[in-house]
Amino acid sequence: MSAAPAASTGQHHRTGSLINWVFKVTKARIDLGGLTRILEMRFLKESVHPALRLVTGAATIGAMLVLPLASAASAASPTISVGSYPYGVAINPSTNTVYVANIDDGTVSVINGSTNTVTSTISVGSGPTGVAVNPSTNTVFVANEGGDSVSVINGSTNTVTATVSVGSFPIGVAVNPSTNTVYVTNFGGNSVSVINGSTNTVTSTVSVGKGPTGVAVNPSTNTVYVTNYDDNSVSVINGSTNTVTATVSVGNSPYGVAVNPSTNTVYVTNYDDN
Question: How many CB atoms lie within 10 A of CB 138?
Answer without folding.
Answer: 16
